[in-house]
């Protein structure tokens, strides 16, 4: 798979491309951890969204042993998610860094909808060829790719790079 390493300048350009696409005002933002934290913060500043919440979700298929044909049927585990009353009746921008399979974004948006919120999904990169949801795409995205994206906040960081895991 082709790899693409982005700079902070590249991310700024992606945010600058996204902001004019976004229609109307959002009452709140739900940032999907971990990948959505940086772009979510940047978008919150640019769009003047101050009501910011986070969602953390994982799928059993993210761990060894899950058979590939079962991936799309995996039941998510919500590690953290906002209370329904914080979403009810609000227009919510759901933010992540990349839509590869789409599981995280779709799962979080569906749960926002079930809580009575009105979700729209925003990502920096959209990978339609990998998506588990044909015919369904993020509401807003800055670029379409098939590359493995490495964001600047992922470079040379983490315990293994800092020598904490020896």
Topology (elements, then pairings):
Blueprint: E1 3-5, H1 8-18, E2 28-32, H2 37-47, E3 52-58, E4 77-80, E5 91-99, H3 103-114, E6 118-126, E7 140-144, E8 148-150, H4 159-162
Parallel strand pairs: 1-8, 2-3, 2-5, 5-6, 6-7
Antiparallel strand pairs: 3-4
What does this protein structure show overall?
- Residues 162-166 have low confidence and may be disordered.
- With 166 residues, this protein is an alpha/beta fold.
- The chain has helices at residues 8-18, 37-47, 103-114, 159-162, and strands at residues 3-5, 28-32, 52-58, 77-80, 91-99, 118-126, 140-144, 148-150.
- Strand 2 (28-32), helix 2 (37-47) and strand 3 (52-58) form a beta-alpha-beta unit.
- It has four helices and eight strands.
- The longest helix is centred in the middle third of the chain and has 12 residues, at 103-114.
